[in-house]
Design a protein that fits this description.
This protein is of the alpha+beta class. Helix content is 30%, strand content 30%.
């Protein structure tokens, strides 16, 4: 509808402008409602851990080799495939036998097949008198994702999308599975 103003005789689109504003407001409210619903639906994921089929958790490593640069080498985990990241934990040492303390590591492979092959070979292997234990690692959801916000950490290793249902467990469910070859990152 076009209305002519009495003084200047120029047509205006005030009715259309108001309608567009209402449509924008309605669309924004709908988008806000969807985001709020998504955030509410993600809150239950805060206590969920998801098996990462490309992440290997290893315990029993001798302290002197438990460094990222060493574990990446071909004579260690590099022989199983391309490694994306290695995170070592020398602070929580394990004393499994008379060979002294040992450490753990998380090794992230580019391909899940490489991680599986690594677990099959390494789990139960003996290194310097220590029995190594290897299993898939798990991760949790990024706090920003849980809140429906973008993650500002480019190196964030947490999940930013919903993982597979069959690979998702609460910590309690993981403990109940006891014999499963899974370890939690937190």
């Amino acid at each position: 509808m076009s209305v002519k103003l009495p003084l200047c005789r120029l047509p205006t689109n005030s009715g259309k402008a108001k309608k567009k504003d209402k449509n924008k407001d309605r669309a924004q409210k709908t988008a806000d409602r969807r985001e709020a619903d998504a955030t509410r639906s993600r809150k239950h994921l805060a206590n969920v851990r998801v098996i990462q089929r490309n992440l290997v958790y290893v315990i029993g490593l001798p302290l002197h080799i438990t460094r990222e640069d060493i574990l990446r080498r071909k004579e260690y985990f590099g022989q199983y495939g391309k490694i994306v990241k290695v995170a070592t934990n020398r602070n929580s040492t394990f004393s499994s036998n008379s060979n002294g303390p040992s450490a753990s590591a998380y090794v992230t492979f580019a391909k899940s097949d490489d991680a599986l092959r690594c677990i099959e070979v390494v789990d139960g292997a003996v290194m310097e008198g220590r029995v190594l234990r290897a299993c898939f690692g798990t991760t949790k959801y990024c706090n920003a994702f849980l809140k429906g916000l973008p993650c500002n950490n480019p190196d964030c290793l947490y999940l930013h999308e919903v993982g597979n249902e069959e690979d998702s467990y609460t910590k309690e469910e993981m403990v109940a599975r006891n014999g499963a070859k899974v370890a939690s990152t937190t």
